[in-house]
Amino acid sequence: MAHLYISHSAVDLDPLLKLHEALRRAGISAWYPPSPEAAANTALVREKMDEAFAVAVLVSADAMRSAEVQRDIELAVSRGVKLVPIRLDKARPHGVVKHHLAPLMKHHMDDPQAVTALIEDLRSLYRRRCPVLAVMNLKGGVGKTTLTAQIFGAYQAEHGSRVLLVDLDPQYNLTQLFFDMVEADARAERDQSVISLFERSMIHATGEVSPASDWTRLSREPFNLPDLSVLTHPLLGADGPPGRLDLITGQFEISKYAFATDAPALAAIKANFLGQVEALRSQYDLIVFDTNPNATFLTQCALEAVDRVVAPMHPDIYSLRGVRLLNQVIREQVAADLAPDLSVMFNGVQRREQSVFEADARNGIFDARAGFELSKALIGTAIPRSNHLVVSPPEEDMPQWRQFVVHHGRGGGLRPIRDSLNLVASELAALAAKHTGEGRAAA
Ligand SMILES: Nc1ncnc2c1ncn2[C@@H]1O[C@H](COP(=O)(O)OP(=O)(O)OP(=O)(O)O)[C@@H](O)[C@H]1O
Ligand SMILES: [Mg+2]
Fold first, then answer.
1. What region does 250 belong to: left with phi over 0, alpha with psi -120 to 50, or beta?
2. Both 107 and 226 in a single domain?
3. Which of 41, 319, 358, 438 is an S-S bond match for 314, by CB 3.0 to 4.6 Å?
């Protein structure tokens, strides 16, 4: 479970204990370095910050002079963690505090009412459950994997937030965009991969047999969310762009569930998966699944976990059929109170097609054939067909974040592609924001 990270100077111990006590009464867990040595240990601080739902900074004259507090603020900004400053005195903000925290200063520790308001704010951040999206279409090759990477790479760059991509497709093409096969398979061999969301594995318990090793065995054992640094892989790396864009890598072995017939075991495995996604929701700002093109147990799991399905489609009647089937599966296979919303976006549109098929779709001509109001579900911007979006395998020694088109620089005709990725990302951000909060599991 995520905690509040508290950054403070070594002399501000009384307000620290006061805040800690108020948090304890509110049932919010907190973490702060237990000793000066721990405070100086940047690797530990970084790990604890990555697990935090927010960083509270006790702002005082001493704190503004503290190298550790300044480092904490800069680290939180670079890791995309929300900052909540709390003033302890009247010292005028300067330096890093002024730069990053001045616009956020609204809490003061001396005023009991302000402390109550602060705890309320922290409580709602603590309970916040980030939106979960699936990029899905029951038609293959429409750009699901490409757009999962490129749109949400753009989303992360634009919104500086913490995004988790999950490769739920047994073809694991999303993983192969960032890893060569040998590296990807090595992660899977250690269970540092998607199967660990479904079954208890070697990363949950020492001596555990890998669930990938035996396709006939389905483990119903419950397990807790492991250390994120073991389960997820940071695509932006330590020297990449700020924020977090992590990947849970995929593997072929999750195909085993398609062959299984033990319904109670599958139900337990689905519950494990839903529980793990739920636990991950407090540690990211957005979670996105790339999914397989055929309807399987994995599709069912994804549909029950997500708030919204984003379906890429080509501007042709075959894709229209795929979207029609997808809508049908959502309506028929998922309980009404769990059914995710559906957004559709055009991908690979060429100018000529854009003027005809796309315009017709936007005008509602295909709504009846789609079996739902496709015209209302369409994202306003189409992603054009472009060589910049053609998948290329990772190059040796190239940082993984370079695979994101938004980080390719500006020249070479990239601008229209970046613009369309950014527009789609912004529209999806607005739609995703509707799903933030108490959400479906609480309902
Ligand atoms: N907008 C685009 N412009 C040019 N090429 C594209 C575009 N979108 C996708 N592609 C290319 O189309 C091919 C299929 O894309 P992708 O693998 O993303 O589809 P998919 O829906 O994930 O496929 P699958 O159903 O097999 O998982 C890839 O070679 C990719 O590079
Ligand atoms: Mg794919």
1. beta
2. no
3. 319
SS3 content of the chain, % helix, strand, coil (to 5): 50, 15, 35
Q: How far apart are the first and last CA of the chain?
A: 20
Does residue 354 register a pLDDT over 70?
no
Structural domain ending residue among the three candidates 127, 149, 181: 127
Q: Which CATH number goes with the domain that contains 49? A: 3.40.50.10140
Residue 342 and residue 239 in one domain = yes
What long-range pairs does 200-208 form, CB within 8 A, spacing at least 24? 200/272, 203/230, 203/231
In sequence order, which residues have a C-beta less than 8 Å from that of residue 396 and are 6 or more positions away?
none
Whether 145 contacts 291, CB under 8 Å: no
Q: Measured in angstroms, how far is the CA atom of residue 184 from the centroid of ligand 1?
A: 20
Number of domains in the chain: 2
In ligand 1, the atom with minimum distance to the C-alpha of 391 is 31
CA 248 to chain centre: 10
Of residues 284 and 440, the one with the higher pLDDT is 284
Note the pLDDT tens digit of each residue in 29-58: 999 999 989 999 999 999 899 889 899 999
182, 196: one domain: yes
Q: What is the CATH number of the domain that holds 289?
A: 3.40.50.300
Q: Among 127, 159, 187, where does a domain finish?
A: 127
The answer to whether the CB of 393 is under 6 A from ligand 1 is no
The per-residue pLDDT for range 122-169, each reduced to its tens digit, is 988 888 889 999 999 999 999 999 999 999 999 999 887 899 999 999
How far is it between the farthest Cα atoms of the chain?
Answer: 68
Q: Is the pLDDT of residue 319 over 80?
A: yes
**Residue whose CA lies nearest to ligand 1 atom number 16:** 143
Beta bridge partners of 345: 312
Give yes or no for residue 185 having a pLDDT over 50: yes
Closest residue by CA, ligand 1 atom 31 = 390
What are the pLDDT digits (tens) for 359-382?
999 999 999 999 999 999 999 999
Does residue 340 contact residue 309 with C-beta atoms inside 8 Å? Answer: yes
Q: What is the mean pLDDT of the chain?
A: 91
CB of residue 391 inside a 6 A radius of ligand 1: yes
Helix (H) or strand (E) segment spanning residue 421? helix 415-433
Give the DSSP H or E segment for 106: none
Same domain (yes/no): 262, 334: yes
Residue 231: phi and psi, rounded to 5, are -80, -40
Same domain flag for 108 and 233:
no
